């Protein structure tokens, strides 16, 4: 696939075929994606790639703790809640997803079911938990660098026919992830990526999210034309 086609056609995948992903293929995706640039070439990321029983235990723990109301223990700052244009975009994508999934606004049960899917990492066969060394925690550069490699992972995966969703819900209960993925205390958990073969029949997989225009995002200065 051409690079532009990959970037234009990739979308978040939230429904997967019940078909395993070979470890070697995930390894190849990581090897390519790790060509991502990083600050001073520090490559601060580490990956805990989980599948099978290990991932099932994480799903179970995530769901149980969230249903029991255990507070979120994400290992990064969330900042203030989204407002204005950010909030509008957040609502827009939720509306798009709920519309194709047939989830009504006031259907609390269906909405909760959707949230629980997220905690289950959308039942993906693989999850890649992305961490970085605690020794550099506090600098905003390490999470920035992790974002760079995560973007490369989802696009590389797409080029191989794999679908992904970057999934903050999957690491909201970080002690569960840490325990079952055997993540040592010297690592900060940044995010996880649910990965697998896309289920083309799953309605949410057809959703194409909108983007603001280049004119809204970019300010060009000093050009002659
Ligand atoms: C840091 C980050 C965290 C995300 N967490 C979630 C999540 O918890 N649940 C989810 O369904 N999607 C999650 N997403 C996916 C975004 O909703 C998605 O990328 C965005 O709506 C744009 O859609 P697209 O990926 O299909 O282009 C996350 C994406 C990023 C970059």
Automatic annotation (TrEMBL):
Record keyword Oxidoreductase present: yes
Keyword annotations of the record: Oxidoreductase
Residue ranges constituting the Nitroreductase domain according to the UniProt record: 7-197
A GO molecular-function descriptor: oxidoreductase activity
Keyword Oxidoreductase: yes
UniProt cross-references to InterPro entries, sorted A to Z: Nitroreductase, Nitroreductase-like
Similarity field: Belongs to the nitroreductase family.
Identification of the protein by name: Nitroreductase
């Amino acid at each position: 696939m051409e690079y532009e086609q990959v970037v234009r056609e990739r979308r978040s995948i939230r429904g997967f075929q019940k078909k395993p992903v070979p470890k070697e293929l995930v390894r190849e995706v990581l090897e390519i994606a790790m060509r991502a640039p990083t600050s001073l070439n520090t490559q601060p990321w580490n990956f805990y790639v989980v599948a099978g029983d290990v991932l099932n235990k994480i799903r179970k723990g995530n769901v149980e703790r969230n249903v029991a109301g255990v507070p979120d223990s994400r290992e990064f700052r969330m900042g203030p809640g989204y407002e204005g244009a950010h909030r509008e975009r957040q609502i827009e994508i939720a509306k798009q997803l709920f519309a194709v999934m047939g989830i009504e606004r006031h259907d609390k049960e269906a909405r909760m079911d959707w949230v629980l899917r997220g905690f289950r990492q959308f039942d993906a066969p693989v999850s890649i938990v992305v961490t970085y060394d605690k020794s550099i925690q506090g600098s905003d550069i390490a999470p920035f660098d992790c974002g760079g490699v995560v973007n490369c992972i989802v696009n590389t995966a797409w080029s191989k026919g794999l679908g992904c969703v970057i999934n903050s819900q999957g690491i909201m209960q970080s002690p569960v992830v840490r325990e079952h993925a055997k993540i040592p205390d010297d690592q900060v958990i940044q995010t996880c990526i649910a990965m697998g073969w896309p289920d083309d029949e799953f309605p949410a997989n057809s959703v194409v999210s909108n983007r603001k225009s280049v004119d809204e995002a970019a300010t060009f200065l000093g050009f002659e034309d």
